[in-house]
Design goal:
This protein is mainly α and 156 residues long. Helix content is 51%, strand content 3%. α2 crosses α3, α2 (10-27) crosses α6 (82-98) and α6 (82-98) runs antiparallel to α7 (105-120).
Length: 156
């Protein structure tokens, strides 16, 4: 069986998705606030590499950019932001349509479920400071059945 990474088009497919999501986010008055302080010039490439690793692809993100701890620390300390999360997920769902990944209902659902889970759990877990985030976190894997080696699994 193909991995979610392969079904999404591998590195190229996830880069297209990251670019489409980022464009939608920057056009959203609420979600774009998260980028108001600036962002890395290779944000979409790094995001695509992160998603690739999480979805069963190569470990490029961990090998070149950092571990889950570094990613979570980038998203920490902003307090709860449920409306921003909801809108970021809506931008993701639209980006899936933009790049043609929503045509396969099973793929659309698993990608949506992954993004919604990551946005509302790992990226939203630490509201106060960098010191809250433990060292040595690994990028969580996601498969057709949900979180790999975790409690959130099921037939998706």
């Amino acid at each position: 069986m193909q991995s979610v990474y392969e079904a999404a088009g591998g590195d190229e497919g996830l880069l297209r998705l990251a670019e489409a999501w980022h464009a939608r986010v920057m056009a959203d008055e609420v979600v774009s606030h998260a980028f108001s302080h600036g962002y890395h010039p290779q944000h979409t490439e790094r995001l695509a590499a992160y998603w690739a690793e999480a979805l069963g692809g190569p470990t490029t993100y961990s090998d070149q950019y950092g571990d889950e701890t570094s990613v979570v620390r980038l998203h920490r300390g902003n307090g709860p932001h449920e409306e921003m999360d909801r809108r970021a997920i809506a931008c993701f769902d639209q980006a899936l349509l933009d790049v043609g990944l929503a045509r396969d209902e099973r793929l659309r659902r698993v990608l949506h479920d992954y993004f919604a889970w990551a946005t509302t759990t790992t990226m939203a877990r630490y509201h106060h400071s960098t010191e809250e985030v433990p060292n040595g976190l690994h990028i969580p894997g996601w498969s057709w059945h949900g979180l790999v080696n975790g409690v959130e699994t099921g037939d998706i």
